[in-house]
Task: inverse folding
């Protein structure tokens, strides 16, 4: 879907609140932007349009949104004809959306109040295809993504507004300091597609760091580690300065895995975790002790 095509269906200038309108509405609600919740409200209609275009949103799509806030992106998604599942932690903002957007789209807008890490898919029915279009607060970006991998199927496409640091951590290459457990999980299942840089002036209040729309498409050969293997990956990266030999010692699964990646990838026990490529981590599944 082209950006121009998206704009033809929806008048985005009437969807996104301006900075002054955002301030006025927040005052009316008695709501101060909460830094602890990553509340930087989108005020640029062009970024709203770009988000929907990258996600290739079409009428009838099921879409998950995290932290709808004042409903700027939410309203655009609903006007595009999607069935939307959203989770909002802030009780005031949840109540505002309940009395404004929910009555307008009673069959299409499924809104819950709660923690997105505990409800990463906002009570989306199990087993149905879906997309994610969301503005992810920095504090939950990795925990939310990890929680997502407990569900099947994974989204076919995600367009995530993220701080640059979080986005680059998702997509960091092995061998670098930013490469970690979340990099392994994301890259095994998704490929990066062209995204979009987002200026600080697109938000109220303006964040102090850069942001971007990270565009991820599920791989045709997407690989997802079991909960048991994901826990082992996280445990290893928690001590990333140690060598693999020391980290794997005493765990029969990890010891088997270390022998296997030595054989298949030539990885030495003195190697540190960040130097192990994504395909090598996927071999953990072959080493699990199944009942």
Result:
């Amino acid at each position: 879907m082209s950006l121009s095509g998206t704009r033809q269906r929806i008048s985005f200038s009437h969807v996104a609140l301006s900075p002054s309108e955002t301030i006025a509405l927040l005052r009316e609600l008695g709501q101060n932007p909460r830094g602890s919740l990553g509340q930087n409200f989108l005020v640029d209609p062009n970024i709203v349009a770009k988000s929907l275009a990258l996600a290739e949103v079409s009428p009838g799509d099921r879409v998950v949104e995290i932290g709808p806030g004042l409903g700027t992106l939410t309203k655009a998604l609903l006007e595009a004809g999607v069935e939307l599942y959203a989770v909002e932690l802030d009780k005031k903002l949840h109540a505002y959306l309940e009395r404004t957007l929910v009555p307008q789209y009673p069959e299409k807008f499924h809104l819950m109040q709660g923690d997105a890490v505990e409800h990463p898919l906002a009570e989306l029915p199990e087993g149905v295809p879906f997309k994610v279009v969301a503005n992810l607060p920095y504090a939950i970006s990795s925990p939310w993504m990890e929680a997502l991998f407990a569900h099947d199927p994974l989204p076919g496409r995600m367009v995530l507004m993220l701080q640059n640091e979080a986005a680059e951590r998702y997509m960091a290459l092995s061998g670098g300091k930013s490469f970690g457990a979340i990099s392994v999980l994301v890259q095994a299942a998704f490929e990066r597609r062209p995204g979009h840089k987002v200026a600080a002036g697109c938000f109220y209040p303006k964040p102090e760091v850069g942001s971007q729309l990270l565009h991820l498409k599920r791989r045709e050969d997407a690989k997802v580690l079991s909960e048991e293997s994901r826990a082992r990956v996280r445990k290893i990266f928690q001590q990333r300065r140690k060598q693999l030999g020391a980290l794997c010692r005493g765990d029969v699964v990890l010891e088997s895995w270390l022998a296997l990646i030595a054989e298949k990838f030539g990885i030495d026990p003195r190697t540190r975790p960040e130097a192990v490529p994504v395909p090598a981590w996927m071999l953990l599944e072959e080493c699990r002790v199944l009942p």
Summary: The mean pLDDT is 91.
